């Protein structure tokens, strides 16, 4: 049996199969009216997920003094194209958050596939860099993941996540962390989805090792949460 980094491909394919379970379409949450004392935070979930994955981290932000009027979760169909569809939907959502809060910029916190959606927006949208203060990637396939080959035949998002895809090539051109935006990543050496682990860090970002956590474990880890909140205060 073929082996990848000391693990058989069977568990890897099982992980992919679980990710490909049908997910109900979700709608982007409508931004909440109200004044914003801090830079609003927009959470962007990963592949085959929904805004509900941010429950724990949002609670940590509220305990840190944020109000619900400063915390937003972007929901989207994760089977669509990063560059042709999803980054544009995110751009419209961010503009809505800015209008509702009166803020000129937002902070973006993304998990997994959401890292590609947010990076494309920051890199290529005309207002992206001017609209984002901090960008955070938790377990993002920022240089592709071999796991995505298992679903690339029929799923556009998986194709975007494969090493060497059009999206990956365009994001790798020139400066990986452009503009005045502050960038940070968190990665795990036990991530069963991002392969290799070194896909997550970006040149020019603050890159943080999270220890041995599984792919979704970064969403609920106390140390990661504390680190993300500290980074957004920087």
Automatic annotation (TrEMBL):
The keyword Thylakoid does not apply. InterPro entries: AB_hydrolase_fold, Lipase_EstA/Esterase_EstB. Keywords: Signal. Pfam families: Lipase_2. Residues 1-28 form the signal peptide. This is Triacylglycerol lipase.
């Amino acid at each position: 049996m073929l082996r990848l980094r000391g693990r058989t491909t069977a568990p890897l394919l099982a992980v992919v199969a679980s990710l490909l379970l049908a997910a109900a379409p979700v709608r982007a949450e409508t931004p909440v009216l109200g004044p914003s004392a801090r830079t609003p935070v927009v959470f962007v979930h990963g592949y085959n997920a929904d805004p509900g994955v941010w429950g724990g981290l949002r609670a940590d932000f509220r305990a840190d003094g944020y109000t619900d009027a400063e915390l937003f979760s972007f929901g989207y169909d994760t089977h669509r194209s990063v560059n042709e569809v999803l980054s544009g939907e995110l751009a419209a959502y961010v503009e809505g958050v800015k209008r509702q809060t009166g803020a000129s910029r937002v902070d973006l916190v993304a998990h997994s596939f959401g890292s590609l959606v947010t990076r494309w927006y920051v890199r290529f949208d005309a207002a992206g860099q001017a609209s984002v203060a901090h960008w955070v990637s938790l377990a993002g396939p920022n240089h592709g993941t071999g796991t995505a080959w298992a679903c690339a035949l029929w799923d556009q998002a998986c194709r975007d996540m494969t090493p060497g895809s059009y999206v990956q090539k365009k994001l790798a051109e020139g400066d990986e962390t452009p503009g005045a935006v502050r960038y940070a990543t968190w990665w795990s050496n036990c991530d069963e989805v991002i392969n290799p682990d070194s896909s997550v860090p970006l040149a020019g970002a603050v890159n943080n090792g999270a220890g041995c956590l599984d792919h979704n474990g970064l969403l609920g880890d106390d140390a990661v949460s504390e680190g993300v909140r500290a980074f957004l205060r920087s």
